[in-house]
Write a structure and sequence with these properties.
The structure is a single chain. An 8-stranded mixed β-sheet has the order 1-2-3-4-5-6-8-7, with helices on both faces. α1 packs across α3. It starts with 10 loop residues before the first strand and ends with a helix. A hairpin with a 2-residue loop joins β7 and β8. By secondary structure, it is an alpha+beta fold.
Length: 184
Amino acid sequence: MSDQVFPDVVLRTRRLVLRALLDEDVDAIVAAVSDPLTQRWLPLPDPYSREDAMSWVREQAPAVRTGGRGLIRAIDWDGALAGVIDLKRTDWRHRETEIGYWAAPTFRGQGVMSEATVALSRWVLTEAAFERVVLRIATGNQASTRVAEKAGFTYEGTARNAGIVHAGRLDLTIYSLIPDDLRS
């Protein structure tokens, strides 16, 4: 396997399993991605169909990994899909990647995303030997800001007019985590 492809890793935390997406996740993905709050912050297809989810699970997510662009993991909590977390915009030369995520409505406010973000960011910085992990969060998305802070990321600033959602362009707050942050 090329050193520029993430392994098809399964990560485990106290409550969660971060694993590949499965056909069994499709209906839960459609429900979660169709939620108005998810649609507010992410420029996903609207409406989001079962065919969209099936294509994502079977074709797009595996291609992201095998093409070296990132890694998409289902967040499994006791057999239920609690959300999805991914590595994207991966720059192998500079050993930098970005984490993105969304939580299924039922699992919001329970620390799921912070726990998953800690697990994935620590893995990519230690086991995958990356030098920088970034979160880009729409200003106003307080829940994602709390995730970044709980996961130990450092606020770097605001990138003006850098994001796109259904309502148009918006500013993104930038947070990062580097190996030195794990030693302090």
